[in-house]
Amino acid sequence: MKILLVEDNPELTQNICQYLSQQGLLCEAVATLYEAEDRILSFDYDCILLDLMLPDGNGLQLLQTIKTAHPQWNVLIISAKDALDDRLKGLDLGADDYLPKPFHLAELLARIRAIFRRSKLGGSDMLEFNEIQINHQSLEVTVLGKLLDLTKKEFDLLVFLLTNKNKVLSKQAIATHLWGDYTDDLANFDFVYQHIKNLRKKICAAGGKDYLTTVYGLGYKFDSNAS
Fold it and tell me: Can you identify the CATH homologous superfamily of domain 2-120?
């Protein structure tokens, strides 16, 4: 799961990013509206954690921008501004939840996972397609009841492909979803092919179909019509 944190408190930013990373989430952070707007125009995120009080404006402005450009994106407001008007305004503009500061990091994680379950998994921890079952709580994948030995990146890659099934995803889109800011320093994205290859091999070895299709010159997709 890829998270964008919009927060101008350096200590809180560090604590949140470190904690979410330890829980297996990819967390990127920016401190201003300007930086956040640049990110949402360039990258995709599963959830945005949004502070309302930012040095260059009100986070509600950014919420409007996000929901105009990406109405399907999830937004969790985290702010010390816990006045009822701000909370209602944020929810009216399309925010999925509101968590007032201060909060426990475990509660933040629970809220993020709940939002993801509602938006991507129909309220369940399980993501299922034919013979493939993905358990987001245990981070386990089974094919025909057989448990796959997947790395964390392979798990995230399968979830990304399956939740975007039948859509062509470029190597760059896959790389930035899985590695975030680190992809800026890479000369190419050839390593994506190796992860696709390993994931395909493990699914097929367990008796599953080969749903991972290469679209030459464009990228890869999870083809639900694979025979």
Answer: Response regulator (3.40.50.2300)
